[in-house]
């Protein structure tokens, strides 16, 4: 998928956004189960179930390009590490968010490169 991001179909964008939401929701549930500072909320569970269901429906309806599964997994981890960094910034006694931020920046740069945001555009 070395084309520019303008040519990316809407279904692929939807897949990547749903993977991001699934990652954030999964980390929110994990944070609730492992950290005493985070209170229970039903909304991350609802968001996780709905995003996974929508991802599955998208998988059944549209063929997947060759790079999208790996970029989708990276978007899932961007959501998870981004939420983890946010929670640890909100509750500093829960630990450092340095590792989460480093992984987050590396993954965002890699996703940007794969989607063509970091490559120079050819002027015609």
From TrEMBL:
<keyword id="KW-0812">Transmembrane</keyword>
<keyword id="KW-1133">Transmembrane helix</keyword>
<dbReference type="InterPro" id="IPR009867">
    <property type="entry name" value="DUF1422"/>
</dbReference>
<keyword id="KW-0472">Membrane</keyword>
<protein>
    <submittedName>
        <fullName>Inner membrane protein YijD</fullName>
    </submittedName>
</protein>
<feature type="transmembrane region" description="Helical">
    <location>
        <begin position="38"/>
        <end position="56"/>
    </location>
</feature>
<dbReference type="Pfam" id="PF07226">
    <property type="entry name" value="DUF1422"/>
</dbReference>
<feature type="transmembrane region" description="Helical">
    <location>
        <begin position="68"/>
        <end position="86"/>
    </location>
</feature>
<feature type="transmembrane region" description="Helical">
    <location>
        <begin position="98"/>
        <end position="118"/>
    </location>
</feature>
